[in-house]
Design goal:
- The structure holds 2 protein chains of 2 kinds.
- In chain A, helix 6 runs antiparallel to helix 13 and helix 11 packs across helix 13.
- The C terminus of chain A is likely disordered.
- In chain A, a hairpin with a 7-residue loop joins strand 9 and strand 10.
- Chain A has 14 helices and 22 strands.
- By secondary structure, chain A is of the alpha+beta class.
- Chain A has 3 domains: about 120 residues, Alpha-Beta Plaits (2-Layer Sandwich), CATH 3.30.70; about 270 residues, Aminopeptidase, CATH 3.40.630; about 110 residues, Immunoglobulin-like (Sandwich), CATH 2.60.40.
- In chain A, the strands form 5 sheets. Chain A has an 8-stranded mixed β-sheet with strand order 9-10-12-11-13-16-14-15, sandwiched between helices. Chain A has a 4-stranded antiparallel β-sheet with strand order 2-3-1-4.
- Chain B is mainly beta.
- Chain B has a single domain, classed as Beta Barrel (Porin).
- In chain B, about 10% of the residues lie in helices and about 60% in strands.
- In chain B, the strands form 2 sheets. In chain B, strands 1-2-3-5-6-7-8-11 form an 8-stranded antiparallel β-barrel. A two-stranded antiparallel ribbon of chain B has the order 9-10.
- In chain B, a hairpin with a 4-residue loop joins strand 2 and strand 3.
- The radius of gyration of chain B is 20 Å and the shape is elongated.
- Chain B starts with a helix and ends with a strand.
- The relative contact order of chain B is 0.22.
- About 5% of the residues of chain B have low confidence.
- Classes of the chains: A alpha+beta, B mainly beta.
- Chains A and B meet through strand 17 and helix 14 of A and helix 2, strand 4 and strand 7 of B.
């Protein structure tokens, strides 16, 4: 009997050819941030967004997806018709000649004022970037793109009152310690990634963390730079061990003579020293939240260390509350010195808190700048991973940047110490030192959104539940329309049970909740984790269904 | 078989009673009640089918043409919809709609009965209110109306009629839900008609 296998397979193949849509080349496109629901449309269409900048998004799309974008009325321009798997980077255009230099090295297109997209036709794109230019590779996977209505950068929130416990911790930051660490790092001559000096600096930092008694001190290796290592340590939180605060800096350096001399005192022994000093101050302090001290390498070659770390954190589902990245925090030539705090739209609360910490704990004036285009340091991969992150960097940019003259004597100790104190103050406020005699912060806070709708109105309520605290006589529930900032208590008297319903929430805004425990003597605990039932964020038990998100975004029909 | 015979007899009786008087009819007044079958799924989910009452004046124009104008009112109650089975609270809601239609129709006489088909405009005003929460929305709108009616004369001036009406209109784009709702749909009903002239 004649076999029917062959004809059947042929028929199946033919049917597949007919039915499956053709896959065209993958193009790199630029989608401008025009007024209108760009973000919800990108999310709804499942566009593979690889980078957010101030004026646009950069995304990869096949020809079929481009047709979908056109049909949806979304404007875009094609930057590279055959982007495929080619690596592309965003390069800061800080001088008129930069674009020319890039075009000599490969293909470059201006994405927005001050930023170009660059790629090499062959070979490594990162390796083709002319030395000394700040750049960031596009995310290797879709960035954690947040759907929902566009959020305009809102005005900074006023600083809260200083916390005396945190104030005492910030005061322990010593200028002498900071200078000593910078000197030690500078003494390695060069910390250019993959040099023996960089490896030795890594060993030195590993030893510093180990000597402080931190937990889980480790090297993290990553490709493609052989031998380059991040140095990471942790202090585990006593109440919320799975919720992370990351304080980080890169310890590698570069210069025109990077193989032999790249002291990198400001860039970035200063940030590294502040991380080590924060570790020293907090090492013996019991905290509610886990703090991770991370010193990255490979930053000057394209944020390799932080990209690997952020990608691993995202892949393993780590819950990152916030990231404080310090990069060049020691130079100030003329008073009044100030520090720039760069955040993206969804990290603006962190900028507010940093500005508040600077004002409260002896830091210089902090300028909160909402600018998703500032992607040239180690906070940017955390933005890609969807975490709140900030970059603290001197406003008065060092003239010794990437030069052999970037040495300790060029730093301003008072300014440097002030920024380190502000950063530690922010970190301690968020990590919450455990307070003697106070009840423990309530754990297990979960939230659920209940939305009832009629034809023309809706009623939204948040249902909160948490785990009972043994030493609590009652609980307070706080709400804010800004994450981590400006909480207002909802209950007049302490809540007796372990649940609360916030009924009839005003429309058009998101709300964030925390709960505290109140002891028999009236002392109040630290705050619980924050939960946002609108986003299904940290602490939230239920992810808002896509239909609900569309509904909240006003796109019900 | 018995039911079919009864229906046939009733039809003959109505035809005899109806005669041809409706052909001379100039003006009549009708009262109808109709089941409302909304087009929009959310309307059906919240309110289900509703019941509307209407009063109309039917005016003969030239030849087989006529004009119908009147007033109708829909009153309905339901419960606000929730997105999750875990949301077990009930929020009763109430919907009221008043409509003023003007329809130009074409009449076909069939002895003691006639058929009327027409199209026109309807102006609507409505209000939705939550019973236990202070939420309220008022709106208005207009849209085309299509009519198909059959009338059978019962006595000298009295007729019964059956009608199907389709309204099409959307409203509420500026509501807190920020989306216009298709409030139209079919109305299927019946009533009585009284010949004035």
């Amino acid at each position: 009997m004649r076999s029917l296998k062959g004809p059947a397979l042929a028929a199946l193949f033919g049917a597949a050819v007919l039915v499956l849509p053709p896959k065209g080349p993958v193009a790199l496109i630029r989608v401008p941030k025009v007024p209108g629901p760009v973000e919800p449309l990108l999310a709804a269409l499942g566009v593979d967004v690889r980078q957010e900048l101030g004026a646009c998004y950069l995304a990869l799309a096949e020809s079929g997806e481009l047709a979908g974008l056109r049909k949806a009325g979304l404007r875009f321009t094609v930057l590279d018709r055959a982007a495929g798997r080619r690596e592309a980077v965003v390069v800061r255009l800080d001088a008129p000649a930069t674009l020319d230099a890039l075009r000599l090295a490969g293909r470059a297109v201006v994405a927005e004022p001050g930023a170009a997209v660059f790629w090499a036709e062959e070979g490594s794109t990162a390796g083709a970037v002319p030395n000394g230019l700040a750049f960031k590779p596009l995310s290797p996977r879709t960035i954690a793109f947040r759907a929902g209505p566009a959020v305009s950068p809102r005005p900074a929130v006023p600083a809260a009152a200083a916390d005396p416990v945190v104030e005492a911790l910030a005061a322990q930051v010593a200028a002498a310690n900071l200078s000593a660490t910078v000197q030690d790092l500078q003494d390695f001559q060069t910390r250019h990634t993959s040099t023996t000096g960089c490896r030795a600096a890594g060993e030195y930092l590993f030893g510093a963390f180990t000597a402080l008694g931190l937990e889980n001190v480790r090297f993290e290796t990553f490709g493609p730079l052989p031998g380059s290592r991040n140095v990471v340590a942790e202090k585990t939180g006593e109440t919320f061990p799975d919720d992370l605060l990351i304080v980080c800096a890169h310890y590698d350096s570069t210069s025109g003579s990077y193989q032999t001399l790249a002291p990198g005192a400001d860039d970035n022994a200063s940030g590294s020293a502040a991380v080590v000093e924060a570790a020293r101050v907090l090492a013996a302090v019991p905290l509610d939240f886990t703090v991770r001290f991370a010193l990255f390498s490979g930053e000057e070659q394209g944020l390799h260390g932080s990209r690997a770390h952020a990608a691993a954190a995202r892949a393993s589902g780590e819950r990152i509350v916030g990231v404080v990245n310090m990069d060049m925090i020691g130079h100030a030539s003329a008073p009044p010195a100030s520090v720039d705090v760069y955040v993206n739209r969804f990290s603006s609360w962190l900028g507010d808190r940093m500005a508040g910490a600077a004002a409260s704990y002896g830091g210089p004036a902090a300028n909160r700048i909402v600018d998703p285009s500032m992607v040239y340091s180690d906070h940017a991969p955390f933005w890609d991973a969807g975490a709140a992150a900030l970059l603290a960097i001197e406003s008065d940019f060092s003239p010794y940047y990437h030069s052999v003259d970037d040495t300790l004597d060029k730093l301003d100790p008072a300014f440097f110490t002030g920024v380190a104190r502000a950063s530690l103050g922010l970190l301690a406020e968020l990590a919450q030192p455990v307070r003697e005699g106070h009840p423990r912060a309530p754990a297990g806070l979960q939230s659920r959104l209940a939305v009832y709708t009629s034809l023309f109105n809706r009623l939204t309520s948040a249902h909160l539940t948490w785990t009972a605290q043994a030493d609590a006589a009652g609980y307070n529930v706080y709400r804010s329309d800004v994450s981590h900032v400006g909480y207002v208590r909802l209950n007049a008297a302490p809540v007796g049970g372990t649940s609360f319903v916030d009924g009839d929430i005003p429309g058009g805004r998101e709300f964030y909740y925390v709960v505290t425990a109140v002891g028999a003597a009236g002392l109040e605990s630290n705050r619980s984790q924050e939960t946002c039932p609108f986003l299904g964020g940290a602490g939230s038990a239920v992810q808002a269904p896509p239909g609900l998100l569309r509904f909240l975004a006003g796109g019900w029909r | 078989m018995r039911a079919r015979r009864a229906a046939g007899a009733a039809a003959v009786l109505l035809a005899v009673l109806g005669g041809t008087a409706s052909a001379q009819e100039k003006l009549s007044v009708t009262l109808t009640a109709a089941g409302v079958f909304p087009r929009d799924g959310l309307v059906r989910r919240i309110y289900g089918t509703g019941l509307a009452a209407a009063a109309d004046v039917w005016l003969k124009l030239k030849g087989p043409l006529g004009l119908a104008a009147g007033f109708s009112r829909l009153a309905d109650t339901g419960a606000a919809a929730s997105f999750s089975a875990a949301d077990d609270e009930v929020f009763p809601v109430r919907f009221r709609r008043q409509t003023v239609p003007v329809v130009l129709f074409y009449r076909i006489g069939l002895g003691g009965a006639d058929l009327r088909a027409g199209a026109g405009l309807a102006v609507h005003g409505f209000r939705e209110a939550w019973q236990t929460v202070d939420l309220d929305y008022k709106g208005h709108g207009w849209g085309p109306r299509f009519l198909l009616a059959a009338r059978v004369r019962l006595f000298d001036r009295l007729s019964c009629l059956a009608s199907v009406v389709y309204d099409s209109f959307r409203a509420g784009a500026d509501s807190p839900n920020a989306g216009a709702v298709a409030l139209g749909g079919f109305q299927v009903g019946g009533g009585l008609s009284w010949r004035v002239y």
